[in-house]
Amino acid sequence: MIVVKNLIKIYKIYQKTGRLITDIFFRKYEEVLALDKVSFEIGKNELVAFIGPNGAGKTTTLKILSGILFPTAGYVSVLGFFPFEKKEAFLKQISFIMGQRNQLIPDLTAMDTFLLNKEIYEIDDYQFKKNLQKLTAIFSAEKIIHQPVKMLSLGERMKMEFIAALLHQPRIVFLDEPTIGLDIFSQEAIREFIKDYQKEFKATIILTSHYLEDVKRLAKRLIIINKGKILYDGSLTAILQRFSQIKYVSLILEKKVKQEALFKIGKPIVYQLPKVIFQVEKKELPRIVAYINNKIPYLDLVIEDEKIEEVIKSLFKNQR
Amino acid sequence: MFKKIKRNLKILLLLTYNSLKITSQSRQGMIFFTLGKILRFLLLFGIIFLVFSKTKIIAGWSLKQVIILYLTFNFIDTFSQVLYREVYRFRPLVVSGNLDLILVKPYHPFLRLLLGGVDLFDLLLLLPYLFLLLLFIFQENVSFFSFLLYLVLVVNGLIIATAFHIGVLGFGLLTTEIDNVIMIYRDLLNLGRFPIEIYQQVISLIFTFIIPIGVMITFPVKALFGFLSFKNIVFSFFISFFLLWLSVKLWQIGLKRYQSAGG
After folding, report:
1. Could you tell me if A90 and A193 lie in one domain?
2. How many domains is chain A partitioned into structurally?
């Protein structure tokens, strides 16, 4: 469905020197490598999350996949089309929702934009009514579609943006920071909506977000990108197996234990008796568990993975 | 093909209807805007009469010919403003990044960026201009062929205006500083209210061959009175289609180099 091979994007950024004559007649441009030989494939009905720090290349990738930007080099095919050609048959099958951009007309009602999109995407009356009913029902937004957009709250406006973008039932949906700036209730509503939409319409969804909660709740596959390079492409669970070298061992002691016996496990990161937590190397885990079973009397033993946020953070740190 | 035209017309009608709904929200603004335009039109009309009270001919043009030229200018200027009002709102779209969401829509972006804000109130102003224009033309002794050529050259003038506006959009993709470009276009076009012969020869040549305001406005009126040579008629069509081609190329280059806000 989506094939990207050795994709490169270079931005030319105008460098201001502050000297008037130089800035007018002898402009200097800096070349910024936004994407550096990025390759991946995405299949039908997948929900893939792109994550990375600001300027990592997430949005640039999405903009190239949707045909907004022209790639500097590399191969891009989406639904069999080269996106930049902006063929109608291609554009009718995709949709792009950006958390900080609007397609709704602020002075009019959301319904006015929906009706305009009905003509643009050539949706017949029956299908339009059916889709609108379904989408507004998911959001419980039947009433606000008739209010002027400028009178809506950010969360309500975002819901309307989603409906406007999905009325034509796109096969591929690009979501760029869809929950940015929203309160926790609206974030939750949007997440539920994305999940329901993917299930109902069998769409392929590509999501970028700074909120790991979005990723954890929605995506099975994760693409981590930094400085224009893909650092990881795989499942959420596999990332822990591959990159996490740490486990957390949490103990509730049955009775007082000599400190020396406990410190043989390692220096605890939490020492609030009867609770003790250790951070241990993954490879040391079997030896440590055996030692605890033999030497330490306990009421409860819990072994936990490192948090995904920590794994990703250390991945970015290592790349710096 | 017919289906596509029908669909585009439907979208255009909806965009126009939405634009009308937005404009009608500010009634006072609408009234003052229209009054200002009428006042400007009447003042210039007064100046023409004042000049001709002191002299009978300006650069070989009689009073009625200058009035027809002035009304032709107003018709072309107002008509292009009616159609291409949305171009004046292009910069905010680029700067905010909302242009991205227009580029992913399955229609030609000109439908929205060029024609998406048709101003129906300006269209109303066009009717008295048209009435006065025809009134003055039919008072003159012009042949049917000259009138037909005049109409064709007015359409040709509108093609040049279209090319200018597409060019502004193309510039807008390359640099966001397009407000200046559109103001330069407006200022230059304003010089076309009078026959280009009143300017010095160098300026007159510039207005014919480089910035063809003369071709847009003076040439149709010259053709109406039989002053325009065959060579200049051919040149008029050549320059309009060349400018249209050039502006579309500029737009395409702009799209390729477009970096998108926050990209």
Report:
1. yes
2. 2
- Split chain A (320 residues) into runs of 10 and give each run's mean pLDDT: 94 80 77 93 93 88 95 96 95 93 91 95 94 88 90 90 93 91 84 88 90 84 91 85 83 84 85 88 88 88 82 73
Q: Which secondary-structure segment (H or E) carries A196? A: helix A184-201
Distance (Å, whole) CA B101 – CA B11: 16
- CA of B263 to nearest chain A CA: how many angstroms apart? 6
Domain boundary among the residues A218, A240, A262 is at A240
How many CB pairs below 8 A link A and B?
A: 79
Residue in chain A nearest B25 by alpha carbon: A107
Tell whether A132 and A274 lie within a shared domain.
Answer: no
For residue A276, the domain's CATH number is 3.30.70
Q: Which domain holds residue A278?
A: 245-319
Q: Which of A240, A261, A280 is the last residue of a domain?
A: A240
Instruction: Inform me whether the pLDDT recorded for B263 exceeds 60.
Output: no
Cβ neighbours, 10 Å, residue B5: 9
Q: Do A88 and B101 touch (CB under 8 A)?
A: no
A235 and A262 share one domain:
no
- CA-nearest residue of chain B to A66? B104
Q: Distances in Å between the alpha carbon of B161 and those of B1, B73, B80, B211?
A: 26, 12, 7, 11
pLDDT at B47 over 90: no
End-to-end CA distance of chain B: 36
Residues A113 and A218 in one domain: yes
Give tens-digit pLDDT for B190-234: 777 777 777 777 777 777 767 788 888 889 999 999 888 999 999
